[in-house]
Amino acid sequence: MRTLHITRRFTDREWGGSEETIWHLCDGITRLGHDAEVMTSKALDRRSVHSVRGVPVRRYSYFYPAVGLSREARQRLDKKGGNLVAPWMLVDLLMARDVDVLHAHTAKRTGGMVRTAAKLRGLPYV
Known about the structure:
Strand content: 15-25%
Radius of gyration: 14 Å
Order of helices and strands: EHEEEHHEH
Largest sheet: 5 strands, mixed
Oligomer: single chain
Number of helices: 4
Structural class: alpha/beta
Strand order of the largest sheet: 3-4-2-1-5
Helix content: 25-40%
């Protein structure tokens, strides 16, 4: 079984509660013999494809749909609570092969993308 974990941010450079929770879930799934991968934005980490503590991570460019957002305001949103848009993440959610479950670790726009992809593909999502 392959599970994609989708979150707004996931980085070992700014490790927090979300990262810890998602990492433990992925580690547990892997120990059971299944595949887990994280899909996230490039918020706080610009690397595209790599792994964090053994978990494969794929990152996507993103934006905040706000006019005149300062660099400092964007950084604050990146750290906590930003309601971002990552169009290429949605494309990959719709195209990813051999996926059994989509697990959203966020709500708002990113969570909506996960729900939309799951419904269009007939996949279960959490």
